Amino acid sequence: MRFIPAFAKAILSLIVITLICSNAIAQKKTVFSGNPILPGWNADPEAKIFEGQYWIYPTYSAPYEQQVHMDAWSSPDLVHWTKHPDIIDTSRIKWAKKAMWAPAVTEMGGKYYFFFAANDIHNDTTEVGGIGIGVADNPAGPFKDYLGKPLLNLIINGAQPIDMFIFKNGEGQYYMIYGGWQHCNIAKLNSNFTSLAPLPDGPVFKSITPEGYVEGSVMFKRKNKYYFMWSEGSWTGPDYRVAYAMGNTPTGPFKRIGVILQQDPKVATGAGHHSVLNIPGTDNWYIVYHRRPLNETDGNHRVVCIDHMYFTKDGFIKPVKMTNKGVAAVPL
Fold first, then answer.
1. Rounded distance between C-alpha atoms, residue 44 and residue 91, angstroms
2. Which of 44, 89, 120, 232 is catalytic?
């Protein structure tokens, strides 16, 4: 009679232990973002960290006549994303008629500034368009027209006024790096973002175009080196890719080092027009970019993805491995 209760007690203990272990294993299970990380057709992602959240600001990837608004997405951990629809559109930017794309977003003085290109101008004497700015009180907008006109509507040094990136140096100075048509300029923003100011060596615009540059400027600083990145190839083709250079100042000179992101016939094609995320206080880096699924041929069918970006011990960027798994959750 004593054997049965003891045996039952042992079985019960085993069940409890198994449940505890199973729960612990479940809690330790790594959650990944998957790729793409956003639903729908999106491109040219600008990735930032604002107010304790990750943010992605992509182009709405559609024909230019339909590309008249943009959404934002926020996440606490790189895995779970919330959509903030229509944060800016042509109803609030009266001079923009089509082709609003490739945003760059920055914070200054408690305000959020949303830089964008509009109208795809090819002649700066007969067409209205170029780089504009929206402003809002929070990163989800809505953004209203800050200047009532383009900040830059001129073609300087052969650079179409598109694809800007806003870089803030350690002294609090903001730079705008921009340009299409295989030309890239850098300029300083004035203290309230209402105009561009001369660079330290005199001119307002300085060409920093490296070999192979097409569009999609990005800049960041790591261990006292300035990394300048850009996209090469045709944005509608499979050979779209990301290359980079390194320099000692934001204004260069920059000499092309090589390609770090390109198509993988097993994963996707047309990988490019990216941004970079660094987890604060760490040396963990991510590349957020768009690519085209293998079964898609429409130039506007692009999706936003994220993968790890690693460096060699000498500071060079290792080739990025595109994945379908994405990255693990990293709460801020």
1. 22
2. 44
Element (H, E) at 19: helix 3-28
The residue annotated as part of the active site, out of 163, 215, 232, 307, is: 215
* Per-residue pLDDT in tens (0 to 9) along the chain, 332 residues: 444 555 555 555 555 555 554 454 445 689 999 999 999 999 999 999 999 999 999 999 999 999 999 999 999 999 999 999 999 999 999 999 999 999 999 999 999 999 999 999 999 999 999 999 999 999 999 999 999 999 999 999 999 999 999 999 999 999 999 999 999 999 999 999 999 999 988 899 999 999 999 999 999 999 999 999 999 999 999 999 999 999 999 999 999 999 999 999 999 999 999 999 999 999 999 999 999 999 999 999 999 999 999 999 999 999 999 999 999 999 99
Told to judge if 163 belongs to the known catalytic residues of this protein, a careful annotator would answer: no
Report pTM: 0.91
Residue 46: active-site member? no
Percentages of the chain per state (helix, strand, coil), in multiples of 5: 10, 45, 50
Beta carbons within 8 Å of 107's beta carbon, 6+ residues apart: 50, 113, 139
Q: Which 3-state string (H, E, C) describes 178-210?
A: ECECCCCEEEEECCCCCCEECCCCCCCCEECCC
